[in-house]
Design a protein that fits this description.
The structure is a single chain. The chain is an alpha+beta fold. It has a single domain, classed as Winged helix-like DNA-binding domain superfamily/Winged helix DNA-binding domain (Arc Repressor Mutant, subunit A, Orthogonal Bundle). Helices cover 51% and strands 14% of the residues. The chain is built from four helices and four strands; from the N terminus they run ββαααββα. A two-stranded antiparallel sheet has the order 1-2. β3 (67-70) and β4 (78-81) form a beta hairpin. α1 packs across α2, α1 (22-34) packs across α4 (83-111) and α2 crosses α3 (48-61).
Length: 124
C-alpha cells in the first residue's frame, strides 16, 4: 500500500480571525510575483474583492503593512509586497515546511493503521 500524503493548512489566529494562513500566504506570494492584486486574484481564481479583503486583513493584523498599493491612473496602479511582507511570508513558509516535514516523517507509521483499501463511497 502506498503511503498517503497528508494535507496541511496552518492558520495563525489573531483576535477574532486569522492573521495569516496558507491561503493568505498564497495570495501574498502571488502579489509578489505579479505586482498586482487583480493579477494575483486571477492567478488564484478568486475575486478581486476576496483578494483585497485577505490582504487588508493581513495589513491590519501585522505591525507593518505586508502589501503596499498604488492608486491607478495614467501610469496605472499596482501593488507590491513590502520588505516586511517578505519577512512575514518567509517565516510563515518556514513554519509550514517544518510542519510538513514532521508529518511526512510520521506518515509511514500512521499509514499502517489504515485499511488496505479505502471503503467505497464518499466519506464524511
Amino acid at each position: 500500500m502506498a503511503i498517503p500524503k497528508a494535507r496541511l493548512r496552518i492558520r495563525v489566529p489573531f483576535g477574532a480571525g486569522f492573521a495569516i494562513g496558507s491561503g493568505k500566504a498564497d495570495i501574498l506570494q502571488a502579489v509578489a510575483e505579479t505586482g498586482s492584486i487583480s493579477a494575483a486574484a486571477r492567478q488564484m481564481k478568486m475575486s478581486y474583492r476576496r483578494a483585497w479583503l485577505l490582504i487588508d486583513t493581513m495589513n491590519r493584523c501585522f505591525r507593518e503593512p505586508v502589501v503596499a498599493t498604488a492608486t491607478g491612473g495614467k501610469g496605472g496602479g499596482g501593488a507590491q509586497i513590502t520588505a516586511f511582507g517578505r519577512i512575514v511570508l518567509k517565516e510563515f513558509r518556514l513554519i509550514e515546511s517544518r510542519a510538513i516535514a514532521s508529518i511526512a516523517a510520521a506518515m509511514p507509521r500512521f499509514a499502517k493503521l489504515l485499511r488496505k483499501a479505502p471503503p467505497r463511497g464518499k466519506l464524511h
